[in-house]
Amino acid sequence: MNSWILNQPVLRYSSPMPARPVFRDFEHRHLKVRWTWSGFTALLACLFFALYAVLLGNLLLWIWSFLVAGLFAAHVALAFIALRRLVPERKIPERITRYTPFLCSVGLRNDSRFVPMYSIKVQDVVDGEPVDKPCFFFRLPPRVSQTTFYRHAFVHRGRAAFSGMLVTSTFPLGLLTLQVFLPLPEETLVYPEKVLTPAKRHLVEQFLERDFGSSLRFFVPGDHPRFIHWPASQRTGRTLVRTESRTVQRPVWLQVDNRLVPDPRGGFTRSEDRFERTVAQAAGTAEVLLELGWEVGVISRGELVSPVSGLQNLEQIVRFLALMSFADAPFPTPPYNDLVIDIAVWAQG
C-alpha cells in the first residue's frame, strides 16, 4: 500500500444525529429504488394469489399475500434505517497528473448501533458522472469503517470536482435495489504531463547555446576571471568571456497560443488535442530550462506567469499551465531583450 495514501487526511461527511423520522435527508440524497428480478417475481405472485384469494374467499392465501407485502415493507424500512446511517470517506493523492494512474481510497462508516449492512456497491462521482470502477463491501458491521481502493487516471487537466458517492445495495432481502447519493464534495487539480523528447531537448539546448554564444567576446586584460566561459573557450582555443553575468541572464518566455481555431482536418476536436500537446510540451520544456539554470516564464493570451528560476519553483509554472483555458486576447509583451520560444513550433514536430 502506498505510503502517501496513508498520510492523507480522511474526508468525512457527517450530519447531526437524527431526531426526526427515517425519511430525513433523503430529499437531498437522491434516493432511487429499482426492482430486482426476484422482487418483481414475488410481487407478481403476491398480486396473483391475492386476487385468487379474493375470488375464492381463501383466507390462507389472503394471509400469505399480506405476509409477502409485509416483506416488501420490512425491506424498505430496514434499508432506509441502514442507508441513512452511512457516512462516506475518501482519500486522494496530493498531486495528480494527467494520464498517470493513481489509487483513490473510498470507504464507508456505518454509524448505526445495531443494524449491519450487506452487499454494498460504491461508486465515486467525479464531475457529475460516476466512475466506472465500482468498489464492493460484503459486510459493514455497526460502528465500523471499511476502506478499499480503485485505480483511476484523468484524461483531462484542470480542476476535477468529486461531488460524492453512489451507494447501491439490495439489503436486506434482495427484493429491491436501493441507490442513494451520499454527498462528499472535494476539488483537486489535475496537472499536465511533462513531455519533451530527447531530440527536442537537444534542439532547445542548441537554440539557447546559439543565443548565448552571441553574447561572448574575447578576453582582454582587466576582465574578471569568473566571467570566462570555459566550454566555449575550449572549443575555440581562445579565451572567451561573457558580456553579462549569469545573475543578469535574460529570462526565457514560453509562449503558448491558447486561442481555439478549428482545424481544417478535424475541426475543434483536433485543435483541442493539439493544444493539450502544446501544454504538455511547455511543461516539459520549462522543466529542462529550469534544470539548465535559466529563468523561465510563460505567456498565454491575456495572462502570464513571471519568470522563476530553480526546479523548486516549477510548481508555479505547472499550476499555471494546468489552469490555462482558451482565450481570444492579445499576448502580453515581454521585455525586448528577453528570449521567447513559441511552444507550438516544438509541439508540431
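Above is the first protein from milestone M3; the second protein from the same milestone is given next.
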Amino acid sequence: MLHAKGPADVVVLATRAYLDGEPVDMSALAHQLGIGRATLYRWVGNRDELLAVVLAEATERTFRFAEKSAGAAAGPEYVVDVLARFMRAVLSAPGLKALTHREPMTFIRLATMPGAIESRAAALMEELLEREHTAGRLPLRLPVPALAIAIVRVCDFHMYAHLLGRGEPEIETALSTVRVLLSPP
C-alpha cells in the first residue's frame, strides 16, 4: 500500500492501470493509496473526470512523440505528418485498445465531448498551427483556435469511426480533410 500525498499520486496509479490495460477502479485506487474514497473523489472528482485526465495526459505524450518523430516537411505537410503519426499511435496503443474494448461508450463520450481531452488536444493543435504560421510556413484561412478545434473534431470523427458504427478507422479521410483545411487561402 502506498501513502498518497495528493491528486498527482492518484493520476499516476490510474495511468499505470490504464497503460496496463486494466480498469480504473476508484475503490482499488483508494485502497492502494491508503486513503478513503471520499478523499479520492475530493481530489480527482468522479471516475470519468479521472479517466479524462489520464487520457488527456496520454494524448499529450503521444502528440509530443509524434511531433518529435515527424519528418523534415514544413507547413501543411508537417502538420499532416504529425497528425498521421499521432492517429496511428493512438489506434495502436494497448491501453486504449483495452479501454475501448471494455468501455467503448465511456471512451467515446469522454473523447468526443467538450472536456479535458478535447481541451488538451485543441491546445496542442493550436500550438502546432501557431508555430508553423508564425514561422511563415503555414498561411491560414481561419483563426488558429477555430482551425485547431475543427481539426481535432475531424480527426476524432474519422479516427474513432470504428467505435461510431462506421467500420474501420478512416485515417486517410481525416488527413485529406485536414489538407483541405490547411490549403492556402
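Note on the second protein: The radius of gyration is 18 Å.
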